[in-house]
Amino acid sequence: MGFLLTLVLVTTIGFLVSTFLARGVANLIDNLFRRMPIIKMIYSSIKDLVSAFVGDQKRFDKPVMVEVLPGSGVQIMGFVTRDSLENIGMAESIAVYIPQSYNFAGNVIVVPKEQVSALEIESGKVMAFIVSGGVSGF
Questions:
Q1: pLDDT tens digits, residue range 61-96?
Q2: Do both 69 and 127 map to the same domain?
Q3: The domain containing residue 83 runs over which residues?
Q4: What is the side-by-side order of every strand in the sheet holding 75-82?
Q5: pLDDT digits (tens, 9 = 90+) for 39-66
Q6: Residue 132: which residues within 8 A CB-CB, separation 6 or more?
Q7: Are residues 41 and 70 in the same domain?
Q8: Dihedral of alpha carbons 40, 41, 42, 46, sign
Q9: Best label site of 28, 67, 95, 127, fewest CB within 10 Å?
Q10: Number of C-beta neighbours around residue 4 at 10 A
Q11: Of the candidates 100, 96, 116, 99, which has an alpha carbon nearest to the alpha carbon of residue 108?
């Protein structure tokens, strides 16, 4: 009975400390980084990029193929980030993020909707394919 009580007590204390202490430390570091001028910009960008792929608010979940020049056959893989640009007077266009290979950078391009076709592939596999320069993924 004593062993079982000790096990439950240690597990409960471990859970409480790891949950609340870890969350507190993470919030402290987050607040610290958000106050440093140059670090704030880099940290916020990386945090937004990571949260776009994982977590509850995934934003790169619509992989697409963009036809660069209609009729040319040249296409680029990317992710729809805005389905509508009506608020800036471009109702027939969408925003597509085009990641760069071997880099965590990319470009946002605005293209007519008819130049974009959805890909029926998991977003993570498409990103792996793009970032690896076409070496891995699918």
A1: 788 999 988 888 899 998 888 888 888 888 899 999
A2: yes
A3: 63-131
A4: 106-112, 93-99, 75-82, 63-67, 116-118
A5: 887 777 777 766 666 666 666 778 899 9
A6: 101, 102
A7: no
A8: positive
A9: 28
A10: 8
A11: 96
SS3 86: helix
Q: Quick one: 46 and 69 in the same domain? A: no
* Other Cβ atoms within 10 Å of 40 Cβ, number: 13
Phi, then psi, of 13 in degrees rounded to 5? -65, -40
In a domain, 93, yes or no: yes
Residues 76 and 127 in one domain: yes
Q: How many domains does the chain have?
A: 2
**Tokens 């009729």 label which residue?**
71
Rounded to whole angstroms, the Cα distance separating 138 from 135 reads 9
Which residues, in sequence order, are bridge partners of residue 106? 99
Question: What radius of gyration do the chain's Cα atoms show?
Answer: 22
Residues 6+ apart with CB under 8 A from 46: 104
Containing 97, the helix (H) or strand (E) segment is strand 93-99
